[in-house]
Structure formats: C-alpha cells, structure tokens
Design a protein that fits this description.
single chain, alpha/beta, about 40% helix
Length: about 280
C-alpha cells in the first residue's frame, strides 16, 4: 500500500473516499503535519497502490490499514474517513477499537445500500471492467463539489485525482460498497470520541444522513460546513481544518482518547513509500 507519512506527534490517519486517493487530503497535510504525524495512504487499486488480489470488503480495507499502522509503528491513531473511507473507519472501529484515539466521519453514513442502489453499483462495476471508467468519472464529478464551486480549477484537480485510480480497484470497490453491512445497529457500541463533518450542499450523502449518524453515536459532535459539497475537506479546507483542529485540541486538552501506553509507537521520520 502506497502512503505518505509526515510530521511528528499524535498520529492522524486520513482515509480517502471513492474513487479518490490520498491526494484528496492534500489541503490538510500542511496544516496538520506541523503538530501531528499525518498518514495519507492510497487504498488498494487507487492512486499509487496496486490492486489487491481477491474481493474487497470494508473489513479487508480496515485490516489493510491496521497492518500498515503496525508496519509503521504508529500506535493508536485518530482516523479521519471520508465517504467510503468513513465506511472503512466504522469497520475499523468495530475490529480495532483500542487502536483509535478518536474517530472523524466525513460526508458518510452508517446504513448499507438499498437493493436497487446495490444492484446499480454491481452493474457499474461490470461496465468499469469492460472499459467504462471514464463514464464513472464524468458522472461523479458534478456531485463531488457544491453546485457553484468557487474555484473552477478545483473540478479539474478532482478529475485528475480520480483518473489515477485503476479500473480493477474501482470495480472491486464498487462491489465492496454494494455488499457493505449496515452499521446502524452497532453505533451505540462505539466509545471513542467522535466528530461527524458534512458539507451543507452534499448531494451524494445529504447532511440529514450525517446528522442521523451523529445522533447514533454517544457524545458525537456534528459540524455542517457551508458552501461545501461531498468533498468538503477539499472544497473548504480552511473551515474544515479549523473545525478538525479545534476538535483535536479539545481532545488533547481534556485527556480524551488516551490509549494504553503499551500500544503507542514512537514517531517516525517523514517518509513516503509502499508497504511491503
């Protein structure tokens, strides 16, 4: 798995959505690497990461991220997951709760797909395998940002991030999305500090679904960022970074999210690489 690893301090693991890669968090990197160790992996089949053998699932993505953290000796992390990355973060929280100091769920939901939506994803996966990836990108671009993005160059930048994905990785992720479990019945089991962030103009996962997600998690905080679509952290980085920074500061000030010392790894030097 390809990744970047920069900064020192308490680790933050940013997990991108579909069909993006770690570059989707580029507008967070400079801000948070000044105070934290920041990791931005490319999930298998996205960005610089090769596709994985066998079927993808949210649990398997979560396992891959846990293996990466073990390899890098991060110790417990604050995980920030966007969209599909949020589904993965919820799977991670169930499988490795002691490895999370905090959970940040961005533009995501807890429920699974309705049957018609799941079937549409499977059909799209088949089209992608048969050379139809361009249509997926064209269809998603208008839904990623707000209705009137302030920077038209941002549209091309998002398109470029998407184009770095492999068709195999995209089709595998579509099948994983279609088959992902409904996590709503497990939200009340989460005990780590949680922040939910959404864009006020998110067309893919409307703010009401993020509000429902926040209500299901004990003590979760909800932040709605104006003039932002689905890619809220990329489109409104100043507002997003301010909100995340304030939440992280409160986490530290109140001693929340502390993990057993035996799990904590030492900070690593800035690096970029591919996990063996």
């Amino acid at each position: 798995m390809a990744y970047t690893d920069e900064g020192k301090g308490s680790p933050i693991l940013f997990v991108h959505g579909f069909p993006l890669n770690g570059d989707a968090w580029s507008r967070q990197l400079d801000t948070f690497k000044a105070t934290n160790r920041v990791l931005t992996p490319d999930l298998p089949g996205f960005g610089a990461s090769a596709p994985a053998a066998g079927p993808a699932t949210m649990a398997r993505y979560a396992e891959d991220l846990f293996t990466l953290c073990q390899h890098l000796e991060t110790g417990p992390v604050v995980m920030v997951g966007h969209s599909m990355g949020g589904y993965i973060a919820l799977a991670f929280a169930r499988a490795y709760p002691l490895f999370l100091r905090g959970l940040v769920l961005v533009g995501t939901r807890a429920g699974g797909d309705q049957p018609d939506v799941a079937e549409a994803r499977r059909e799209t996966a088949t089209k992608v395998r048969n050379g139809g990836f361009e249509a997926v990108v064209k269809g998603l671009i208008p839904k990623m940002l707000s209705e009137t993005p302030s920077n038209l160059g941002m549209v091309q930048a998002v398109r470029d991030i998407m184009w770095a994905s492999s068709p195999h990785g995209v089709s595998s992720a579509l099948l994983a999305l279609a088959d992902r479990p409904d996590q709503r019945g497990h939200l009340d089991e989460l005990r780590m500090p949680t922040l939910v962030v959404t864009g006020a103009e998110d067309m893919l996962i409307p703010p009401g679904e993020s509000a429902e997600l926040a209500r299901g998690i004990r003590g979760a905080e909800l932040i709605v960022i104006p003039k932002a679509g689905h890619l809220v952290a990329y489109e409104q980085p100043l507002a997003f970074n301010e909100a995340l920074g304030a939440w992280l500061g409160a986490l530290q000030a109140h001693g929340l999210g502390q993990s057993p010392a035996s799990l904590v790894g030492s900070p690593q030097a800035p690096s970029q690489g591919v996990q063996p």
